[in-house]
Amino acid sequence: MTTDPPSKRGRSEAVTHDANEVIELVFDVGMESEEQAYNPDMCHQLFGEEELIQGHPEPAITLKLSAAFHALLEVDSGGKKEPGATDVVGPFKEAFSDALFTDEEAFQRAAAQEGSLDVAALGTPVSIPGDWAPGCAGGELSLQLLASSIASATPQLKALHARLQPLLLFYIDAASMIDQEDDSWDLILALAETPGGQRVAGFATLYSFFGWPDSKRMRLSQVFVIPAFQKRGVGRALLAAATVHAQAAGALDMTCEDPTEDLQRLRDRLDVQRARHAPWLLEAARRVSGLAPGATTALEGKGEVGEGQAAFHTTIPADITKRARQELCLCKQQAQRVWEVLLYEFLLDAKGQDGADRAMQQAIRQKLSTAISAAETGSKGKVTQETESGFVLQKRRRRDAGLGVGGRPETPSVPVEEGSAEAKAAAVEQAVEARLDAIASVAQRRGSTLA
């Protein structure tokens, strides 16, 4: 921050503050013991790429949100604003529209009229199987999960969703607002029971699109958990409810476009836990990993996987992919991720961590190196990225996201433009370790119960 008085600064200089440090969002979460004020993770869609506020000596910007997410903006510049100072109010008005107040009395009147949430008007209850994931129903929170088509939602739900959407700008990179009249969108809402009454703890949106030949698929588009409710199982519950909803809607599978690392990890844990309750899938993974007596092994050679031995092949068989889609609503890429974790779990029991790690590292390294070798032509400025169709070339992304979707996933991503062999090898090894870390963070030893 520049601290010299205006008279000592050049004409092009101005006192400058990081917008994320001077903005506070204050939530009414119905729990006095909980911290309610939070700095945003990002605000570049309001204040530009550099996320700076200029010309305000000591700014304090507070966005107070009522239980139903009406918003009161309070701006204190901390002294006389300089000529050309950043317009603070304008970007908030554009984002929040009619839900934004700058007059406290008007805000209090709107908040007083909210009343308690009418659950019956907010969607159809979604029930999550109890064995899907520990804490999936909200952990220590009492959660209610509701699903609704946004286009045909009640006026109360549409208004609530419209007030919730601008919050994504502070927590999800490249977030965009949903067209509420597009009947392809569904909303999953998580309500938490608190001492102050029911509060919205988070929400997710799903987009329906064509699934060949005559069906539909669903894409998880946005997942957002109110900061005070994070790390309490709400995100996991939203993912589980989205999966239940997609299956009930007859979707072929559920994809998730460009998830953040946190979201992908949650999704992997949920889907692996679901897979552990599918005996046919466990038996297939066990057979392929070479653990079943008399089965054809995917490990070439004998004994522990060691240096110089052939690679361990982890590509999921096509028939398993098809059944995982039909019965578990897993898209091809997610089925592959789940498959890798199951293989690793069986390898842990058979060969211990060192042997399992070496087997998986060789498989990932071979798969990635092959993709890079095939993709080097015309690859300047791009990376290889694993998708539903295998490894493809994609442009590098500007930044990671803080929550939800819109960030960079954990799948291997390696620069393939011209460079030294040493640099390429180092990048491959970094991607291999990142993928193995992602697998290991989800896996658990199976023990003798599945022997």
UniProtKB/TrEMBL annotation:
Region (Disordered): 398-421
Domain of life: Eukaryota
GO biological process: subtelomeric heterochromatin formation
Class in the EC hierarchy, top level: transferase
N-acetyltransferase domain ranges (all copies): 148-289
Keywords, in A-Z order: Acyltransferase, Transferase
Gene Ontology CC: one annotated term: nucleus
Family annotation (Pfam families): Acetyltransf_1 (PF00583), Hat1_N (PF10394)
Catalysed reactions listed for this entry: L-lysyl-[protein] + acetyl-CoA = N(6)-acetyl-L-lysyl-[protein] + CoA + H(+)
EC number in record: 2.3.1.48
Molecular function as annotated in GO: histone acetyltransferase activity
Record InterPro entries: Acyl_CoA_acyltransferase, GNAT_dom, Hat1_N, Hat1_N_sf, Hist_AcTrfase_B-typ_cat-su
Gene3D superfamilies: 3.40.630.30, Histone acetyl transferase 1 (HAT1), N-terminal domain
Family: Belongs to the HAT1 family.
Family annotation (PANTHER family): HISTONE ACETYLTRANSFERASE TYPE B CATALYTIC SUBUNIT
Identification of the protein by name: histone acetyltransferase
Origin species: Auxenochlorella protothecoides
